[in-house]
Write a structure and sequence with these properties.
about 600 residues; Immunoglobulin-like; 3 domains; six-stranded antiparallel sheet; five-stranded mixed sheet; 2 helices; 45 strands; about 0% helix
């Protein structure tokens, strides 16, 4: 059977021809972000393109362009636009000394940054020692990604101002995930950059047994293309005699039947869905927690005011003596074998084997004997982030001793057989004296590609990047203005995440010819225009189905690679050859070329 042979090369030269491309942004597009990937159809014979952009105002032209950029690919990433402005752009094949034949102009606008601007929010940079302040940081309750100067670069559209946004992050494929919280009815979404919903968690109560899954806190797209979200299940459970003195109808939701006292317990659940919204894995803390963990009575009953949540049928939460372990975080290891989850009220992190759904290890306070290791590592923590080296990072809110104890970042290792875990890195979060350092709610840790830690302090309103040798190289505070021209007040976050850009995964392809003969050589060039490394599967197949062959090529960010394709046997005359290039990071992102065989 005839087939084609491949040779992968990394070349500096340029080749011509391209897969069919559309013009992006679409003509007259209204965008909600200021970093844009421009894409344009290939021009015959071009090995470099010139893009010019001007503000679209009365009398404006391209004599003094706002931005001018060259690229050898049919796509180029450009930053620096402004919210509330209109632009026009054009492009041409660039050859020095030859008069350009411009294509365009094409127009687009960037919508005003209404939420942040109208509500008088701001990000104040406290220090910036980064040599090249790259990448963006999400600010979930502000509904935005910002650059390292504190300026918004993306805002979430189509959401009313009364809806709270939490756990906002950019996925490796360049989509956006978040959960919404309005009137305590929570939904989980994945959207494209323009806010169009691509996927929504079904929220059908299949795990909770209720009308909703009670999503909360944590939602993410997994590397395998599935989705994972925290959720809840409420169960009426008999109260053991040893705990009845603390469980009363005025402090908890209870009832008595057949001389037995029952209390309504909130159990944490974790659900994994496939893209078709089917449950492919789930875990329920009811199968794990024992009575001591569930009722978790501290020394004395709480004197804190009772807060009722009417949307949850009167379920009561109190400051101490909680009747919920409060599962508030999870992460999944790169091999998709273990889930790491955190219970705030128990000051505990657990390791769940996905195959068996069993808890195989646990760290934290000795609320019960179930906590195997890590006593006094952290207290009332947020996050449970598995790092690339297998260690676990938490934001230690350190609630005990309110007003005196400083929260911190805590990283501890997983023990080797016969050993115990140790704290391998920690950093106190008393960064400055300008704003409060106590944080009782929220917070997370995100390890950056340079191995620094991006730390969000939750309701202490601070974000900082800390090096492994404990230098704070970037920090910011989130503030709001209560009334115009008045003193700025603290504005809390829940979590903050790093993104290398709005386009971590993006590529184009070009070929040097539209035909191929047995004695010829076809060059296929892959341009990785994204800001993350990627690998690609190149499939060469015939229209008749007589052959099909795959090859994989790895291309670093902002680099290109050439695959040389040559038949090693004659093909039928007039056969059409299809070249399909697929991103292995985002299999939905494909480019195709048809080549005629002569």
């Amino acid at each position: 059977m005839p087939f084609l042979c491949f040779l992968l090369l990394v070349l500096a030269g340029f080749i011509t021809g391209s897969a069919t491309a559309q013009t992006i942004p679409a003509p007259d597009a209204a965008l909600n972000y200021t970093q844009i990937m421009f894409e344009y159809p290939a021009l015959t014979g071009a090995n470099q393109y010139l893009i010019q952009i001007a503000e679209d105002t009365t009398g404006s032209n391209f004599d003094h362009p706002f931005i001018e950029q060259k690229d050898s690919s049919t796509a180029t990433l450009i930053s620096g636009f402004g919210f509330g402005k209109k632009y026009k752009w054009q492009y041409t094949a660039y050859t020095k000394g030859i008069k350009p034949d411009w294509k365009g102009p094409y127009r687009f606008q960037i919508l005003a940054d209404s939420f942040v601007y109208n509500h008088h929010y701001r990000v104040r940079i406290l220090n910036n020692e980064l040599k090249e302040p790259s990448g963006f940081v999400s600010a979930d309750l502000l509904r935005m990604f910002m650059n390292r100067h504190g300026q918004p670069v993306w805002q979430l559209p189509n959401i009313d101002e009364f809806t709270s946004i939490r756990d906002l992050r950019l996925t490796p494929i360049g989509t956006v995930t978040y959960i919404t919280d309005r009137n305590l009815f929570v939904e989980a979404f994945e959207t494209d950059l323009q806010g169009n919903i691509l996927w929504q968690a079904p929220n059908n109560g299949k795990i909770s047994g209720d009308s909703t899954e009670y999503y909360h806190h944590n939602f993410t797209r997994l590397p395998n293309g599935n989705y994972m979200v925290l959720s809840k299940k409420f169960v009426w459970k008999p109260v053991p005699a040893a705990f009845r003195q603390y469980i009363t109808g005025t402090r908890f939701e209870t009832y008595t039947g057949n001389d037995t006292l029952y209390a309504r317990i909130e159990f944490g659940t974790i659900i994994e869905y496939n893209p078709q919204k089917q449950v492919v894995w789930a875990w329920n803390s009811e199968d794990y927690l024992n009575n001591t963990d569930i009722f978790a009575i501290k020394d004395e009953p709480s004197t804190a005011p009772v807060k009722k949540n009417e949307a949850l049928n009167g379920h009561v939460r109190t400051k101490r003596g909680k009747i919920e372990a409060h599962l508030n975080a999870f992460s999944v290891d790169t091999d998709n074998q273990f889930v790491y989850a955190g219970f705030r009220n128990l000051s505990r992190v657990i390791k769940i084997d996905k195959k068996t759904a069993e808890v195989v290890y646990s760290w934290g306070a000795k609320t019960s004997e179930e906590a195997k290791d890590g006593n006094n590592f952290f207290n009332t923590q947020h996050d449970a982030n598995i790092l690339s080296n297998g260690s676990i990072a938490v934001f230690n809110n350190n609630e005990e001793g309110v007003g005196t104890n400083v929260p911190s970042v805590v990283v501890f290792n997983q023990p080797l057989p016969g050993n115990t875990s140790q704290i391998v890195w920690q950093h106190p979060c008393n960064f400055d004296t300008l704003t409060p350092n106590k944080s009782l709610r929220g917070g997370n840790i995100d390890q950056l590609p340079n191995l620094n830690f991006l730390v969000s302090m939750g309701n202490a309103n601070k974000i900082a990047e800390i090096t492994p040798d404990h230098r704070i190289v970037w920090s910011a505070v989130i503030e709001r203005e209560a009334n115009p021209h008045e003193q700025m007040l603290v504005f809390l976050l829940y979590r903050a995440y790093y993104a290398s850009s709005l386009y971590p995964c993006y590529f184009t392809v070009q070929s040097n010819s539209a035909t191929l003969s047995q004695s010829g050589l076809l060059q296929l060039k892959i341009f990785n225009e994204g800001t993350e490394d990627d690998s690609y599967t190149v499939t060469v197949s015939s229209a008749s189905g007589s052959f099909k062959k795959n090859h994989t090529a790895s291309v670093a960010k902002a680099k290109s690679a050439v695959i040389e394709i040559k038949p090693d046997a004659a093909l039928p005359a007039g056969e059409k050859i299809e070249l399909t290039v697929t991103s292995n990071t985002n299999p939905a992102l494909q480019r195709k070329l048809w080549i005629a065989y002569k």
